[in-house]
Structures are given as structure tokens and as C-alpha cells.
Amino acid sequence: MNYLPIFYNIQNKPAIVVGGDGLAARKADLLLSAGARVSVIAATLGDEMTRFQAANRVQWLQRDYQTGDLADASIAIAASDLPDTNRQVAQEAEQLRIPCNVVDHADLGSYIMPSIINRDPVQIAVSTGGVSPVLARMIRTNLESCTPSAYGNLARLVESYRQQVKQTFPRVEERRKFWESVIDGPIAEHVFAGRNDDARALMDQLVADASADPQYQGEVYLVGAGPGDPDLLTFRALRLMQKADVVVHDRLVSDAIMELVRRDAERIYAGKERANHAIPQENINQLLVRLAREGKRVLRLKGGDNFIFGRGGEEISELIDEGIPFQVVPGITAASGCTTYAGIPLTHRDFSQACIFVTGHLKDGSSDLNWEMLSHANQTVVFYMGLNNIQAICDHLKQYGRAAGTPAALIEKGTTPEQRVFIGNLDTLPALVHKNQVKAPTLIVVGEVVDLHRKLHWFKPGEEIK
After folding, report:
1. Threshold 0.85, pTM exceeds
2. Are 224 and 241 in contact (CB under 8 A)?
């Protein structure tokens, strides 16, 4: 270990930054965030440092560095664009035993600046000992994805109850078990969801019960998995996928996304195909309730977004009636994700001033839609689950006024490596389905914006337009 990792208290202590450009400003900003009184020594200031000086956040000494400038400093950063000046700062800091960082020259200074994840008061520092700052930043980025932004709020909640918990649980082992249940349980989830009052109410209840091994009711996480590409998951979705004890998933959740679910989680398939439902919707609702009452953390994982043709409203209605705690995490709906990957903007100033999402079949299996409204010009219509009704959809749109030559597209398995896009119009679209053996999941997009695909298709730029 080449460096001792420490966290240094510089609250209200004098700090010197030598240099006035953008790099020096970023270092000054870190010192200011930690509460230091920052003085900047530089003949000129860049735009960012000028803003700091104008806002009285830093004191500016408008000159070159001079011997003796570090006499009263607690910490120093040499960020000048003059190597000799940086070396002079480092030498004087060493003589005065003042911690000094020399930007881009770790060997000259006594400390280095790590990549930082700041969830104040929680801080995570990542360092490669100056060997590869780029690698440190990449590691930090990976950690960012699994570090909720509200960790700081959770830490403050824990701090506010420390003495009370210490009095309630005198034994160290009891306190450890209690805090583990708080930090990895519903209280933490309340905080992460911004429900701080609920978190405190539950915390008060647990402390009042004086149980070192509290028993929680389970919780349901309704998570939108997006259209297929796992990189489109939200940070919260990924965290809950790694936390769940059991996952109830549907047919449209891709294998790549299922690979991200906690390895030892129980998996229950609840997929739905046309006239073939693995588990009827009413039974799914009851299943979620039963699993939660068993104390399990239940992940209800659905393709796209739960609230756009995903029956999420029906599921949370049941959870509310049964008093089951739950969270809802939105996902990128297929209409947005798939058309984006196909290079088809849903709206465009010249072609489409509105966009409508429509299910290709209703609850009773019919397609009794408001065809007059759907057939208006200058709008984009996206049909979900309409592949089996493709001929009827095209016929109805033409019958109610849409021109037969209106551009239309089929997007099969959008956002995935298997994505296929077929371009036609209301006359030719049904034949494209049969000719190319297009299978679900496929979106149908109707509107003049479809023609933009020929220029804007970026996901597979070498792919032949069909």
C-alpha cells in the first residue's frame, strides 16, 4: 500500500491553491466542499475560478507564487501550468510538513486526490495510487450505480438514533443485528424513496418494541425492466433486482436483464402470450400479496413500464387494499426505447405534433378503438401488442382517413442485438409481416416520422433498410 487512505478534517482551516485555471478550480471546489478557507495564488484566473472569486468563495492573491506563501496553510494544492512553480510549492510544503498535492505529478506531492462518491456524510474514495486515474474514475462510476443518492439521508437518520439504540440494546451484538436490519430493510427503502417521515415512524416502532431481531412484513417492488437493453435500467431498478428474495417476471423481460437479478432469488414465471397466460392476472395480484406476507422482498419485474399497458395499476390497487408496502420504479416504455433505437423520433416539428400509444387489443380481445381519432394527420401512433391484428389496424386507419401511403414501421425486439426494423406503409405493412416472419414482441409505428429512419437509424447503421 503506497498511500495511507485517510479522511482529513479541514473545516475552517486555511488552504492554498496555486494556479487559476479550470483544473485548479476543480481542486478548489473540493476544498471548499470540505469547509476549508481557500486562498488562490495566480496571476490570472480562468472563468470558473473567476466565478468563485466574484462570489467571495475564495481569496485571490493576484501574483505568482512566492516563498513563504505556505507559512500558515494546513493543506496545499499545486495546480499551476508552470512545472518549476509546482516543484517549488512541493518542496516548501515538505519542509513545513504541510500535506501537498501536485496535480498530474503524484511523485512530487505527499498525497493524491482520489475519485470521490459523495453522499454526505457518506463518502467513498477510490484510488489507484496515482497509477491510473482513468481506472479509478471507471471504478467510481461502477460504484455510483449501486450507491443510492439518499445514502447520506440514511446515515443522518442512523446518527439521530444512535444513543437511543445504544440505551435500548446494551450488548454490541444486539446493536449490530438491529442496525443491519435497519440499513438493509424497509426503513432504508423508505429513505431511498424519499419517505423520511415513514422511515422515522417505523424506526420509532422498532425501538419501542426493543427487539434486536425485528420481524418485518415483506415488500413488493414493481420495477419496469425497459424494452430489452439492460443498460437502460435505472440505478434503483438494478439495486432492487439485486436485493429481492423472489422475482415474478413476465415474458418480455430479456435474458440479459434476468442475468442481473440476484443469483439465489426464487424465480416465478408469469408471462402472458395471446390466449396463453402462465398465471391469470388476478392470481398474480394474490401471489404478490402472499409472498409479501411471508416476509419476502418481492420483485415484480415487467418489460417496458409497469403503468403503460403493464397492469401495474391493477397490481398496486390490490397491494393497497391488502395493506402491503410497495415501491414502483418506472421503466423506459417500448414506444420510446424501440423507436429511439430505430432512429424514428416520436415527434418532429415538421411531421408530428402529437404521439399516441395504443394497445392492439382490449381486455375482451377486441380492437374497438377510436379509429377516427387515431387516423388524424400530423401525429404518430404506436401500437403495442398489435401484430396479430396488423391487417385490421391498417384497414381501419385507411377507412377513417389515413392515406394508404402513410409511412409505417415494424420494430421487432427493439433495443436488443436481435432488433429488426421493417419500413413500409399502410398498404404494404401486413405483407412485410408475413414475408419476413416477424414475431412478437414487435411495435407498429404509423406516421410521417417513420421516413426519418432512413437518415437517423444509428443503432445498426450498416443494416439494410427493409
Report:
1. no
2. no
